[in-house]
User: Fold this.
Amino acid sequence: MLSPAENKLLALLAKECDLTGPPGIMDISDVVIALPLAPSETLGSIKDLFSIGLVDMNTLKTAVFLTPEGYEAMECERELGK
Assistant:
């Protein structure tokens, strides 16, 4: 089960994906600004989601985006919320 911070991060990246197309790439600095969380909590959530394969990062580790599994997890959350 994902933490509330991880769910917020996935929701933000899914929204970006819906607006700009897959995979919904965002600079990590923009993610930190957009989420109402402490920067350390946001970065920890990115690390945790990366370790389980729901998000991935560019080679420089400056941007984050959803993997197909991450998008699917977010879709399941949306369906459960209905």
Q: What stands out?
A: Strands lie at 26-27, 55-57, 63-66. The CA atoms of residues 53 and 67 lie 7 Å apart.
